[in-house]
Design a protein that fits this description.
Shape: globular
Number of helices: 10
Order of helices and strands: EEHHHHHEEHHHHH
Radius of gyration: 19 Å
Amino acid sequence: MQIYLPIAEVSVNAFLLLGLGGLVGVLSGMFGVGGGFLMTPLLFFIGVSPAVAVATGAAQIVASSFSGLLAHLRKKTVDLRMGTVLLIGGLAGAGAGVFVFNYLKSLGQVDLLVTLCYVVFLGVIGAMMLIESLRAIRRARKGGPISRRKKHNWVHGLPMKMRFRTSGLYISVIPPLLVGLAVGVLAAIMGVGGGFIMVPAMIYLLGMPTKVVVGTSLFQIIFVTAFTTLLHATTNFTVDIALAVMLLVGGVIGAQFGTQIGMRMKAEQLRVLLALMVLTVCSKLALDLLIEPSELYSITAAGGL
């Protein structure tokens, strides 16, 4: 069943969109990521322009993340105080990111920017997560401790400390603010929730327990992506409501299944799966940049639409 997407200006199978939304929803519930790192490239592959994919992908992330967050709130695995600090930085970063996005869009360079950002960030982070997770699994098989994160590192020497009781931490608010700021910028430019950066940062930089990280990540993602969607809708007019609704329906349903799956798997196994998925998407995007397109020239408006 084909449906026409008015803003994206393409016709797509409705069941394909529901399936994509469901897949991203499962990832959201399992890993505590918005899933935009996978959704946005997949929208590229089915013919949606990067500008529309980024803005509309952010809208889909809101619903799938909210569904997953509800499940974690019931299990009391959300650090609301830490999430609020991350959110403050995220809102500031989103505002700055949309400004950069709009400027490059006016120059007609936003498509290249989005693709290059995906290749660089996904490649680096995916490789780091995979290496660390495999080491943790090897240690577990040998009977050693799964993780040896230091209780005290340079983060604990910074000023402006705050106690985060749910996470069992007493650290400076500066690192969480900076993590939130970076995630906000990426949400605006790449149409992602930023969980693929925030989750590792919360575990390895801030030292948060893995069981709390997923729910806290979803809490921040919801508000930052909602703010990003609003900015894109009012400044770029690139949010396709028909596309967003189809993705939302699949995403909300998938997130509930993903949360149940994630609770049954070990933290190290979840990180390996997430790393492999990140590297797969990165490889596909990099390949598309290197392979010569079938049509060397195309006529588009300056805004990339």
